[in-house]
Amino acid sequence: MYLVTKRIDFCYGHRLLEYDGVCKHPHGHNAIVEVDVRTDRLDSRNMVADFSDIKRVVKGWIDRELDHKMILRQDDPLVEPLTRLNEPVFTLESNPTVERIAKLIFDISREQGLPVVAVRVWETPTSFAEYRE
After folding, report:
1. CATH of the domain spanning 2-132
2. Cα-Cα-Cα-Cα dihedral sign, residues 133, 123, 125, 49
3. Residue 15 has what pLDDT?
4. Catalytic residue (choose from 14, 65, 111, 123)
5. Region label for 46, one of left (φ > 0), alpha (ψ between -120 and 50) or beta (otherwise)
6. Segments in the chain below pLDDT 70
7. Rounded CA separation 115/49 (Å)
8. How many C-beta atoms lie closer than 10 Å to residue 125's C-beta?
9. Is 11 in the active site?
10. What string of DSSP letters covers 4-36?
11. CB atoms within 10 A of CB 8
């Protein structure tokens, strides 16, 4: 088995509703995403996947949809005033935990045809969540 990992950095803000801790307040993170792509056989270029292809697909989507945006639960009371002020917001049906963001990136990567086996999102230098099937 061959495996390559592409690292992608982005910034986002969020808060967690119905949570009793400091993350219930709006705050931001400098996230690091690690995307693992695996195959049993190398392609004609002797690659699992070209790093630039992973970057184009995954980082392209992250840059358009998540980077420098507030990621909020769709029923968060902040969504309406931020949207009214033309602030960038991305909504999810559930709390935007780092676990949920890892699964979101995994799902989008797979939908774009990448043979992704795992996505890790580092929320801080010492804490990450991973999603894999």
Report:
1. 3.30.479.10
2. positive
3. 97
4. 123
5. left
6. none
7. 9
8. 8
9. no
10. EEEEEEEEEEE--TT--SGGGS-EEEEEEEEEE
11. 21
Entry pTM: 0.95
Whole-number pLDDT of residue 71: 98
**Strand 27-39 to 2-14 pairing:** antiparallel
Which tens digits make up the pLDDT trace of 9-22? 999 999 999 999 99
* Amino acid at site 34: E
Give the C-alpha separation, 59 to 57, whole Å.
Answer: 6
Catalytic pick from 11, 14, 18, 23?
23
Q: Where are the domains of the chain?
A: 2-132
Q: Could you give the CA distance from residue 114 to residue 127 in angstroms, rounded to a whole number?
A: 25
Q: Which of 68, 80, 87, 111 is catalytic?
A: 68
Assign 101 to helix, strand or coil: helix
